[in-house]
Amino acid sequence: MNLPKIHSITKKICVALLGGFLLIFLLFHACANLCILRHDDGAWYSAFCHFMGTNYVVKVFEVVLLATIVLHICFTAWLWFTNRLARPVRYHQRSKSTTHSTSKLMMWTGILIFVGLIMHFTDFYFVKLGWVEGQYMAKVEQLHNEEIDALQQAAMQYGVTPEEFVKTNEEQLEMYKDQIPAEQMAEINAELDKLRAVAPVAEMLTGAAEAGMLSADGKWLRRITHDDKAMLEAAVEGLEVEPDFYYMAREKFKNPWIVFCYLIFFVVVWMHMRHAFPSAFQTLGLYNYKYSGIIEILGQIYAWMVCLMFAAVVILVFLGL
User: N or C: which end of the chain has fewer CB within 10 A?
Assistant: First the structure.
């Protein structure tokens, strides 16, 4: 197989730079996840997710991040493969290396992290892309328009639900349809069609508080199903429905099997980070006998801190805290 001629050290530098960027992002991601533990009905975390999902700069960063992950995987696999080709026959006797044990597992921990990322993306990111069904949320202010507000007020005035109000009007129209001129009948049917289209939305808004779908600050309609999402988007023009990551995280981390899988995933991430941190410094020529001890300690602290932050969210949510 003829691969492009790129020097080994160049590939190592690319792996180190890309990996360093991912290390920084992991700390940012772990800090953001701590908002899930706030007892504010997801106000902070939902606001953060809304900003991350709607800001154009963040959208560009998202593409850069995904490209970084793909390139890091490709360069690492390429480096490993070319190293194998360079020495097709293994050493007869393994050398005794002083290298940290986690360095010998980097390729395998990387593969396990890739599998874990597929699981993580399926649980959350693929919901955002629309590839997987999840739970959603929408701003309450966007769910109000002239037809919806009028229907809610009329239903409240007669002491019925919005759908009951529409159904009653349909029955009365059926009873007196022979007595109504055709032209007027067409106008009434047109008005009823508008009410029929928005009746499910008005019904949902009316019972949102009782169903636990309204956020504590009253700004968000939460726990919207995939079918309800399609209904809302069809009824309200220009409505932006986004994934309810707070609710999904709170629900998923109640499942002991999911919690177990994520904790194993974090252990593997720790093993990978444990070597990646000092290795990046070494590849970039910043690792020498003066600073090696400090870099090793900082690497351990960083790996433990990030992974414990991730694990704390999963464990505490599982415990109901």
Answer: N
Q: How many CB atoms lie within 10 A of CB 30?
A: 19
> Residue 1: what pLDDT?
47
Contact residues for 241 (Cβ-Cβ < 8 A; gap 6+) = 136, 137, 138, 224, 229, 232, 233
Torsion of CA 250, 254, 255, 258, to 10 degrees: 50
Q: What is the pLDDT of residues 244-295, one digit of tens each?
A: 999 999 999 999 999 999 999 999 999 988 888 888 888 777 777 777 788 8
Domain match, 234 and 271 both: no
Between CA 282 and CA 311 the distance in angstroms is 29
Domain range for 195: 139-243
Domain stop point among 212, 228, 243: 243
98: in domain: no
